[in-house]
Amino acid sequence: MAHTSTMLPRLHRYRFHFITERPTPLPRYPGSAWRGLLGHGLRRATCVTRQTDCDGCPVTTSCVYHRVFETREPDGAHGASVARPHPFVLDIPPSPRGPVQMLELGITLFEPARDAFPFILHGLTRAGRLGIGRDRTPFTLERVLRETTPGSGQWRDIDDSGGEDTSIPMPPPAPRELTIVLETPLRMKQRGRLVGASEFESAHFLRQLWRRANELHGPYRNGIDVPLPELKANQIETLDRQLRWHDWKRYSSRQRTAMNMGGLVGRWTLRHERLAEWWPMIWHGQWLHLGKATSMGLGRYRVESA
Fold this sequence. Notes:
The structure is a single chain. The protein has helices spanning 31-46, 64-69, 117-130, 202-217, 219-222, 279-284; strands spanning 11-24, 72-75, 80-83, 88-91, 100-110, 139-147, 155-157, 177-186, 189-190, 193-194, 237-246, 249-252, 257-260, 263-271, 301-304. The protein folds into 2 domains: 11-157, Alpha-Beta Plaits; 171-304, Alpha-Beta Plaits (2-Layer Sandwich). It has a 5-stranded antiparallel beta sheet with strand order 4-5-1-6-7, with helices on one face. Strands 11-14-8-15 form a 4-stranded antiparallel beta sheet, with no helix packed on it. A two-stranded antiparallel ribbon has the order 2-3. With 306 residues, the chain is α+β, with helices and mostly antiparallel strands. The protein starts with 10 loop residues before the first strand and ends with a strand. A hairpin with a 4-residue loop joins strand 12 (249-252) and strand 13. Helix 1 (31-46) crosses helix 3 (117-130). It is built from 6 helices and 15 strands.
């Protein structure tokens, strides 16, 4: 059987640096604002019909905006299209308190959307005219970087002549114990309700991670099924749980209302002598994000291990 790492979704990581016309205050976590700007900019840059929405549009099968933001695929069993995960996530550092003028946005594209990058670049350039923050402050693109190999931490200017290594690097040696640090709120559902800090177990996280990997790179994509490790998720210990619920709200222009977007933040430790069976998925998942609203940057975590 192929190594699990070879079955995980390929990804391409970019960083955009912007400067605003004047210092402007931003929400503490501006993920919703950036997602909205990216969507509006991409639609303006790619839509050829200028319809108000995508329903009934005759060119959705070849539309970059539809593929990235209205992601749907045929369901052979029922003859209709079904919603699929967006082929991107946002990586957004929390905004400092007070007005800012330098902005940074990270975007991870998964393999199905790799060719959408030029349109995203153009869309973000157009989004700068729409402005950001409550004052709609215009901003301009200053620099774009790409990571040479996913997870390497080595970044180059996008116009650098050096090639991009799109392979999935092998993770470091598997530990028997590791700590997961949730960097943005994690919203996971179990039996129809969000998992809170008191009932959280490592099994919730691991099952969600396996589903996420399959949704992004599973059988309906290209015939590859990410295998479920033999070690059952509920056999892995949950130690030193330091989790809390973090509430925040965003305004939905589509639904014209404020929406609660709270989730878990904090850290906990996993331990098992056979943790290596889950390790490639855990390591790679640092760039997949988990749970709800990953396209806004939620569900991002990092791994700490000796």
